[in-house]
Design brief:
Number of strands: 9
CATH class of the largest domain: Mainly Beta
CATH superfamily of the largest domain: Electron Transport, Fmn-binding Protein, Chain A
Number of helices: 5
Order of helices and strands: HEEEEHEEHHHEEE
Domain Pyridoxine 5'-phosphate oxidase dimerisation C-terminal: 172-212
Enzyme class: oxidoreductase
Protein name: Pyridoxine/pyridoxamine 5'-phosphate oxidase
CATH architecture of the largest domain: Roll
Strand content: 25-35%
Distance between the termini: 27 Å
Family: Belongs to the pyridoxamine 5'-phosphate oxidase family.
Largest sheet: 9 strands, antiparallel
Pathway: Cofactor metabolism; pyridoxal 5'-phosphate salvage; pyridoxal 5'-phosphate from pyridoxine 5'-phosphate: step 1/1; Cofactor metabolism; pyridoxal 5'-phosphate salvage; pyridoxal 5'-phosphate from pyridoxamine 5'-phosphate: step 1/1
Helix content: 25-40%
CATH topology of the largest domain: Pnp Oxidase, Chain A
Shape: globular
Radius of gyration: 20 Å
Structural class: alpha+beta
């Protein structure tokens, strides 16, 4: 089959302005809860984080680890590619693709680092193996081979063998993305999708329907 012939029509849901809540955070939570309850897909917390520095955009999938009225939180190595790009340009975007529900959410915002106290609290709640890996990996740096990476892991495992809790790695922590724009997308027949955009204007969210 040709790639040009691969398609499906979207018909499971609709989205009207009256369906949307005034607060986009509450609207996000409503869709997120539906996604969890549907149980149709894996990794509902997976989101694409897009960053840009030197006019070169990059994207990667990370996991959402906290959502509140301030914004969206994910964790990484601050010396990773995304960490360094956010240090240069904190403007970024998030994208959730819940394809079994024929839904997408796009968020634009500004990233800011969490405090060491916040980072340590979450870091020590992670599985021990993940804590060791965070210490062992110089994320985004080149490595000779898998054996070298495994050796780094084993060295950290031995280093902290007698420690009940690992300390926070000096280059590891979280970002809070504070949204300025939300877009909710619901697939519809004939590619006439429903799209609504919330834009923050003087501390108030303005809502518009967009053409597909």
């Amino acid at each position: 089959m040709s790639l040009e012939d691969i398609r499906r029509d979207y018909a499971s849901r609709t989205l009207e302005r009256d369906d949307l809540l005034a607060d986009p955070f509450e609207q996000f939570k409503s869709w997120f809860d539906e996604t969890l309850n549907d149980g149709l897909g894996t990794d509902p917390t997976a989101m694409v984080v897009a960053t840009c520095a030197d006019n070169v955009p990059t994207q990667r999938v990370v996991l959402l680890k906290r959502l509140d009225t301030e914004g969206f939180v994910f964790y990484t190595n601050y010396n990773s590619q995304k960490g360094q790009q956010l240090a240069v340009n904190p403007n970024c975007s998030l994208h959730f693709a819940w394809l079994p529900q024929e839904r997408q959410i796009h968020i634009q915002g500004v990233a800011q680092r969490l405090t060491d106290e916040q980072n340590l609290r979450y870091f020590q709640s992670r599985p021990r193996a993940s804590q060791i890996a965070a210490w062992a990996s110089e994320q985004s740096s080149a490595v000779a081979d898998r054996a070298s990476l495994d050796a780094q892991y084993q060295a950290i495992e031995a280093r902290f063998a007698n420690d009940e809790k690992l300390p926070l790695p000096p280059t590891w922590g979280g970002f809070l993305v504070v949204p300025r724009v939300f877009e909710f997308w619901q697939g519809r027949r004939a590619r006439l999708h429903d799209r609504f955009r919330y834009t923050l204007d003087n501390a108030s969210w303005q809502l518009q329907r967009l053409q597909p």
